[in-house]
Amino acid sequence: MYIALISAECAPIAKAGGLGDFVLGLARELVRCGETVEIVLPYYDVLDIAPLADLQVVYEQLRVPFHNEWITCRVFGGKLTEVNCLFIDPQSVHGLFQRRRIYGEQDDAERFAFFARAVLEFMLQSGRQPDILHCNDWQTGLIPVLLYEVYQALGMNRTRVCYTLHNLGYQGRVSETILRQVGLDPQRVMTADRLRDSQDGRLANLLQGGIVYSNFVNTVSPRYAWEIQHTEQGMGLQPLLNTYAHKFGGVLNGIDEEIWNPELDPLIPTNFGVETLPRKALNRQALRSRLGLQTVDKPIMAIVTRLDYQKGVDLIAHGIHDTLAHGGQIVLLGTALDPAIAAQFAQLKQDTAANPDCHLELGYDETLAHLIYAGADLMLIPSRYEPCGLTQMIAMKYGVVPVVRRAGGLADTVFDANYSDQPFELRNGYVFDELTTAGLESALRRALGLWHGYPEYFWQLRVNGMRSDLSWRRPAQRYLAIYAQLRATV
Length: 490
Description:
Elements: E1 2-6, H1 18-32, E2 36-42, E3 52-66, E4 69-80, E5 83-91, H2 108-125, E6 132-136, H3 142-151, E7 160-165, E8 173-174, H4 176-181, H5 186-189, E9 204-205, H6 206-213, E10 216-219, H7 222-230, H8 238-243, E11 248-250, H9 280-291, E12 300-306, H10 313-325, E13 329-335, H11 339-352, E14 358-362, H12 366-375, E15 378-381, H13 391-397, E16 401-405, H14 408-413, E17 430-432, H15 437-453, H16 455-467, H17 473-487
Parallel strand pairs: 1-2, 1-6, 2-5, 6-7, 7-10, 10-11, 12-13, 12-15, 13-14, 15-16, 16-17
Antiparallel strand pairs: 3-4, 4-5, 8-9
Helix pairs in contact: 2-3, 3-6, 9-12, 10-15, 13-16, 15-16
């Protein structure tokens, strides 16, 4: 099959979050399976071109409508390891992707609506007709709409769309102007069963449009798929998702084991694996040395996260204090965009600065992240909601026992040491249900108690996690089955 993965992100060249890891990990595995894959991105001015090979212009005069004008684009092509990548570069005074960042502009809706139209214009003008367009999140939600409202009539009638929802917290609610910008008739598509937003009828909902017009829709874990249909996590889209339940499901993400593998990781001081797990202690000492923690007989509880409401920042702050009070050390690596949350953790950093068992790093450092996974014993992830989560998967790969709230992909991957119905060899962490300090404390203290009191059982939890198949192999096979089913409908 010829599969085009359309996204606003791709690690490591344009990464703002887990979406970038998803795109690269899935694309690599699909190529290994023998498929023809292209990743299509905007050509951002912050694009890291260093990992790209053979970057060159592959299409010179791509003309794309934008409001009442036409913008000429160049399309660059290059290789990211074994994957072909295409980058759309508008030559425009509007500087649509020349903003020194991927997201966060007031005209994001216009920018990504232009990208959606440009992708299909490029496919049409260059004679490409992918079997599958695999679109991701609201930034590409207009692609399935445009494909079926405009481009099928122009000859693109063999292409089918798989649409992956990574986080319903961001839906792309926009004015009708955006629809006119890309050549859609608002009177036709601004209906309740198409793009009209259910919470504000004056707005179009791009994520909703993607759901309605795509051939298959999925989330990045089975549990999150259920949650957004049946709980408040659907954020207003529950009725729509239930209407389209026949083409909706969950496919659990994997992790890219070329990047996250303690046996090969070039960013950690000492490589190790299941058979050489005692060598992890050398990384633990290196972590303590780098961050100024005292060398004592205590477990290191790590937190590697975005500091925001979704991630349960109130419980993270409580977990820091509770871990320190019950015989653990704390390492945090995280950033906050919300000024109030940033101020809260800046104060917490100041309050704990003199504690030799605590270090809060308010920023992001890729090398330090790898060292934390390599050196930590436990990983705290008390998310309010979690579509999939890669942190717990990476942690387990590195012999770190996760302590998580039962939500989304966390529930699909972490099985409680004491209360799971899984056999013992599949139990790999600690889980709590209630979004309360009492629920968190129960899981934390069971985890810390096992480390202190029953080290041989704690060791087995580490091994169980490391032996889990968390790669992209099984997810890629699931996506291939979905693609094949969609292609059969042509």
